[in-house]
Specification:
Ferritin; 170 residues
Length: 170
């Protein structure tokens, strides 16, 4: 059984993962409105990942005898100036996710909850991958600029991304 403090923190993380899904869907909509369907696809896949993450926390909380308490999800930003800005905001957001997962890990360690420490390790590893992916895209955008053939090539590249949930995960 989880402590109330850890249960509350996981509920907050579920809410934040659902907010992340909503924020990335807003970014996808902005990009689609600007005819960058491939880059929008990157964010559409990102929404699927965020829902997967939320449900992973949701199921874990239930497995540990906790209670799910869903809260309102804040409205996401809907206007952006450039594709670069979208990815800069994405990096800022992913760093916040990492900070939150680290705080959950610290709490689980303080409470000597080894099962939760084990569970959270997957998310820590996932965040390393998330930040590295966004960092690479930011580097490409800074190199190619936001106009012309380079941006169209990046759009085509990101159109290939698909969501592949890990096997035996939910």
């Amino acid at each position: 059984m989880l402590s109330q403090k850890l249960q509350d923190a996981i509920n907050e993380q579920i809410n934040f993962e659902l907010y992340s899904e909503y924020a990335y869907l807003s970014m996808a909509a902005y990009l689609q409105a600007n005819d960058l369907d491939g880059i929008a696809n990157f964010f559409t896949v990102q929404t699927q990942e965020e829902r997967f993450h939320a449900m992973k926390f949701y199921n874990y909380l239930l497995e540990r005898g906790g209670r799910i308490i869903l809260k309102p999800i804040a409205g996401p930003e809907v206007e952006f100036k450039t594709v670069l800005e979208v990815f800069e905001k994405t990096m800022t957001h992913e760093k916040e996710v990492t900070r939150r997962i680290n705080a959950l890990m610290d709490l689980a360690k303080q409470e000597n909850d080894h099962a939760t420490v084990s569970f959270l390790q997957w998310f820590l590893d996932e965040q390393v991958e998330e930040e590295a992916t966004v960092s690479k895209i930011l580097g490409k955008l800074k190199y190619i600029g936001e106009n012309g053939p380079g941006l169209l090539m990046l759009d085509q590249e990101l159109a290939q991304r698909v969501f592949n949930p890990p096997v035996n995960e939910a």
